Amino acid sequence: MYVAVKGGEAAIANAHRLLADRRRGDRSLPAIGIDQIVAQLALAVDRVMAEASLYDRMLAALAVRQSRGDMIEAIFLLRAYRTTLPRFGYSNPIETARMKIERRVSATYKDLPGGQLLGPTFDYTHRLLDPSLLADDAVDEPALRDAESGRVMRVSEILAQEGLIEGDGEMPEDHEIGDLTREPMEFPMTRDLRLQALARGDEGFLLALGYSTQRGYGRNHPFTGEIRIGEVEVEFDVPELGFSVSLGTIQVTECQMVNQFKGSSKAPPQFTRGYGLVFGQSERKAMSMSLVDRALRAEELGEDITAPAQDEEFVISHADNVQSTGFVEHLKLPHYVDFQAELDLVRRMRSEFAAGRAGGRDTVKEAAE
Hints:
single chain, PhnI, alpha-D-ribose 1-methylphosphonate 5-triphosphate synthase activity, Alpha-D-ribose 1-methylphosphonate 5-triphosphate synthase subunit PhnI, alpha+beta, 4 strands, 40% helix
């Protein structure tokens, strides 16, 4: 903490009091509750969970309330809390093929095994402000159907049956999955670490990069193979028991992009994959993540690296909004000594410049005489 002038601590304390006052807002209105944020601002809560890498809706809602709705500040708060938690181990890979699906759409096959399920989405709304939401009008009960049980085939499996798409990200048997939160970042990265970084990355940044690939900045012509949203079971191996136990269920969004690939001397023409998986209902983030994942595989697939979205170090180093915020917002902190040094330097340089110009004019005058 910088306390740059006398009385700085008192000023900071007063700033905290003012922040608390603004957070509370008009005292004549009821305070917003954590349960209300969880239930009615669910997509904001899901984004905070995803980019903080901590699945806890109540804590994410608390962070949203504490930050007055500033998403990046809320993500920062939840990540800071996450660092205080003990680490017991790593769960088994989740089986998204056995997801209890709430939404599932494909842009590649109209009729696919298991069917398409629109679920809760803004896709078919008119994008017009709804005045009825100014009041607490009654809302119709949704139409429901029995939940899907068992395994639901992925679109990529249909293509794989004909050998038209590459393998599903197989890694060497001796490969140890990395942990971006515990290991220093090094380049080049393996794909599992890249996907971890993208899952924690800022949605807006990844969206912009994904959009750039569609505008020609990187060879990437995708089809949305499948987006599915739903609940999956998380299991944990307990060595003392010798078998896996269920820790509960979490909601995730998964996106698989199907991309063109012309083939090479080592591989026949086939489709390639881009993959995205995030906590909660975060469709735009999962799609952006899958576009960028595919773009970052350029070197692996023998493609030229010509665009920002294909540059691993550029993407990963700038995707983290908490780190980016720290670098940008530190400019607000006192830099008085540094600036005075720069100020003195500019003044000296201006004096030398002026003296040089004056000397030059005298020389020209003498030559003219």
